[in-house]
Design a protein that fits this description.
- The protein has 408 residues and is an all-alpha fold.
- Among the domains are: 1-134, no CATH class; 336-407, no CATH class.
- It is built from 19 helices and no strands.
- The chain has helices at 5-15, 17-27, 31-37, 47-66, 73-78, 80-86, 91-110, 114-128, 139-160, 163-186, 192-215, 219-228, 230-240, 247-274, 281-303, 309-329, 336-358, 365-382, 390-407.
- Helix 15 packs antiparallel against helix 16 (309-329).
- The longest helix has 28 residues, at 247-274.
Length: 408
Amino acid sequence: MREDPSSQKSASDVLLLPLRTAASLVRQDKIAEAKRCLSISNELISDEHFCADLIELESALITTLNQGIGDAVDHFFKANKLIDCIGTQTKSGQILHFLRSAANGYHALYNSDPSTAIANLKIADSHIKPLLRHHPELALTKTSIENAILTSTAQHYFAKGDYLNAERVYGQLHVNFTETIKVLEQSDIDNPIAFSEIFGTILEFNLTLTHQDICTLKFSDGSIRLKSSKENVEKFRKYIKEIQDTPFKSICISMSLLYDVAVIICDASVHLIDNKKEPTENLLGSLRELPRMIFEAREAGIKAGQRGERLTNFVTSVQRYSDSLLKLAKPRKESPLHVGSVIFLSVFLLLFVPTVLILKPTDPFMTFYTVSYFTVALISGFGYGALRFLPLIRQYQKLLASAKEREG
């Protein structure tokens, strides 16, 4: 799970009350009172910078609650000076420092920079710990940060090619997710983003591991892995429908499509490569749908902007394999000439061999039978195409005529 703004939202009314009050005072042009509300002296920051940073900070909080904390990183960056001035002496300051570090961590995680993600998420975790004593509702947020650290760690191992440790961390993460889902389901929290983040991260790891299975030709392992996660994918799709149109939703849609693509690819690879079977009509129909599905997955990833960049690169890799699979599954058409030759030879031998063994003809009858059977076999094997052998038949006719003359 990458982020869970639900508990942040529940705690924000209390912890961020001074900030909201200060913003309200600024709108009333009471800047001095707003600064006092946040315990900030004039020496620390000018009125102009204070107002500008406060606007950015408010935008960061709105983005965090509506879209996800990772998408608020630019607003937090622009409000850096104000956050530093507020410090960590108050609960409001602690939650702001937590949110800033979490935003930097999630943003790094989205952009495949696990080392930076781990560093910032650990800072965020240190800021959230002191708040838990008086605000136990933040426990779920802390769990989310811990899971994000594990996600970053697994991503770090994947990037190094250490799949053994990546799967170990993923196993631990999966246990955590199961417990988190139970807590969410038993609570009154109605947050499709939180559920989508959990099921989306599970799906993302399964897709990454399946991609590795495909690259190492372990198609059956990939197929089993995907089918075992079908129930989670169905839940994931249910929660996607409840999310607003944001970059996060576009990423979810892209991953949902990639799941179907991966299922088709693994099943087709098992059928064509592992089992060495000819493609069925159903299989060919599914493979013909791949280009459309991959196109839609790419478009959804592009729509997500920078956050979907890594996903579009993954789509490109999948498309290359899909193209190769489509070529492999292309029905093999036997050469008409090859089939005709088999029929020609079979008919000729069926006619000629019994005649020689039973009748034991001599010239000119031997030549007559040979030319006749040869002609019948050609017509049987090639139909109208037998006309291409007309010069050869005429040559046999000349031989038959000369044989008759010698007999006479």
